[in-house]
Amino acid sequence: MGIGDVLRRRGHRVVFIVEESFAGTLEAKGFEERTMRLAAPPEQPEEPGQFWKDFIRDTAPVFRKSTFEQLGEFIAPTWQALVDGARYVDDRLAEILAEVAPDVVVEDNVVGFPAIPASGRPWVRIVSCNPLEVKDPELPPPFSGLPLDDRSEWEAFRDEYARQVGELQESFSEFCVERGAPALPELELIHESPWLNLTLYPDELDYPRTRPLGPAWRNLQTSVRATDEPWSPPEGDGQALVYLSLGSLGSADVSLMQRLVAELADTPHRYIVSTGPQHAEYEVAENMVGEEFLPQTSVLPQVDAVITHGGNNTTTECMWFGKPMLVLPIFWDQHDNAQRVHEKGFGIRLPTYDFEDGELAAALDRVLADETLRTRCAAAGERLRELPGTVVAADLIEGVATS
């Protein structure tokens, strides 16, 4: 949305293709929309993103297991669901592309849509998850949360990933070819664009690659939207103000949210809580205010620290605004972001379901009291804000559209 907003303000026509249950969300921001479905329509009307909310709710017990165990019980089923969606929607995507006739298509997804490369139109891939998605043999495997300086578990994790995903990947690659797209590289589920590929990860957190990405790759550093509505913090009394957000999916784990609220209720700090889709199932404490949805990019500048699940958007936005983090990862690349924030010294990683009583509050106190950490975070934010990734991306996309 941030990139689209820059392009629109430059006079370009920007059309978002959105999943049907989100219909109207982008129109409310002034964009054109075309809708698609990733599965057959349900009998009852859906809430936005309801499929994934239900999926997370039903899968929540797996999140208490190791990242190795999550490969078979969460990662592989998630890839299957995403591949099924890509298969289901391909005809509809081809129809939309023919009708809209875009000069350039921008794809932000972890699974490829064959209709895009098969269309013959210039297209751009955005890697909006942790950049370990673009693999390197000298870097930890994606989804593992493993440290850079200890390789002892890398090979076993990679072998198990290949065992869990290999057959699905081969079948999806065959489908891509049937639909007129190129075959997929080994164990990959999305193509590399020959025109332009964009990562977004600050240099302060990024990885030292032994296989440099090619000339069609650029790192935006961050991509922070400027479309959120204004937000003002509650009246303060000199206490620190902390933002707590596990994302719309992570906050669906009610028992986890209840424990976090209980752990933080007796601290001397104030909290802004993104309560999420299950907000009616629990209550925040007296030192907290909460809403189901918050304009995150308007909240972050106002707070002193952030307790986050480590999603790539929140992680990079915290870096953009110079905010130290406590990271409690739950699934997908959140484990990788948590590890990278921790080992690069921009916050603390905690075991999401196994932290000891008082450990969360103690870690938060350390983050708030660490002036060196706060200075480093502020300096990173100042650097990142000098050249917004949304502007860089718009420039590059314009170049593809006119080449």
Structure description:
With 403 residues, the protein is α/β, with parallel strands linked by helices. It is built from 13 helices and 12 strands. It is globular. The mean pLDDT is 93.
What labels would you give this structure?
403 residues, alpha/beta, six-stranded parallel beta sheet
In short:
With 403 residues, the protein is α/β, with parallel strands linked by helices. 40% of the residues lie in helices and 12% in strands. Strand 4, helix 5 and strand 5 (196-199) form a beta-alpha-beta unit.
Distance between the termini: 23 Å
Provide the structure class: alpha/beta
The total beta strand count reads 12
- Strand residue content: 5-15%
What is the count of DSSP helices, taking H or I runs of 4+ residues?
Answer: 13
* Estimated helix fraction: 25-40%
Order of helices and strands: HEEHHEHEHEEEHHEEHEHEHEHHH
Low-pLDDT sequence parts:
none
Give a quick account of the main beta sheet: strands, pairing sense, barrel closure: 6 strands, parallel
Shape: globular
* Sheet with the most strands: spatial strand order: 9-8-7-10-11-12
Mean pLDDT: 93
The radius of gyration computed from the alpha-carbon positions, rounded to a whole number of angstroms, is: 21 Å
